[in-house]
Amino acid sequence: MATHSDAMAVKSLNTAGGRRRFAFKSISQKIEEIYVDVYRSLDPLKAEPSEGSSFFRDSLAEYRELNTAEDFISLYEETFPLVQTLPQIILQKDLIISSLLSRLKMEGRLSHEPILRLIAALSRDLLGDFVPFLQRIADSLESLLESGADRDPEIIEQILTSWSYIMMYLQKYLVRDVGHVLRITRKLRYYPKDYIRELMAESVSFLLRKAPVQQLKKGITKLMTEVVEEPSEMRKSGAGALISHAIRISSSKLHSKTEMLMPMLVDDSTFQIGDQSVE
């Protein structure tokens, strides 16, 4: 009898040698590849957009040549007149965001990659003006995952790649209030699927490592408070994964911030919130 994992098997090019050109990979195998590649696969960044253009407009034009999905074509036709200059993008940012997020539906999966990349490109154009949209974006990503994307490794990777770009582009603004980022990402960091929690922890840990000491302390305290408020296994594993990724660069190498993080993690005051404690 076929299992759910068998049903989700993906046919991929066999790069391990042998006679078979293709090999079937289960969803768990595909997700394991995301753990390894989500950051390493980030493409080299253009330092500047084309002259007189913007990162968003450049990306929109590029994907118009690559993607012919119905949802993306309608997005292109709807937004291209609004993004001819950067001042125009700033003025029309609410409408552009709404156009992007409204198309993040499972039935439009062929358009997901360009849309998610365009969201990241827009964050690079708007910088600080993009921060107020983060909650809407996080909510849309959660809805997309809940509608079935959490069982599709390709879409999961697209989501995490986009979010990683956003964290990188906006780090200057986000490290000023780590608690705000933790609030925005709470539902994603404590998502029911353990592999989503792990991947989100890896993405958000980037900001903990970049944050100044005071913001780092606030972030750790915020994490502990979340676990105390709801000491479920999901929250414990999600918070633990975030701390684990924050203190290590790889499985065998610790990050330089570890020297500051470890005293916070063994300080009793960090683990005592009100009349409760984190065990």
Number of helices: 15
Number of strands: 6
The helix content is 55-70%
Total number of distinct structural domains: 2
Radius of gyration: 20 Å
Poorly predicted sequence stretches spanning 5 or more consecutive residues: 1-16, 274-279
Average pLDDT score: 82
Q: What share of the residues does DSSP label as strand, in percent?
A: 5-15%
C-alpha termini separation: 42 Å
Report the order of strands and helices: HEEHHHHHHHHHHHHHEEHEE
Provide the spatial order of strands within the biggest beta sheet: 1-2
Structural class call reads: mainly alpha
Question: What does this 3D model show about the protein?
Answer:
The chain has 279 residues and is mainly alpha-helical. The protein folds into two domains: 145 residues, no CATH class; 103 residues. The chain is 61% helix and 6% strand. It has 15 helices and six strands. A two-stranded antiparallel sheet has the order 1-2. Strands 3-4 form a two-stranded antiparallel sheet. Helix 12 packs across helix 14. The longest helix has 17 residues.
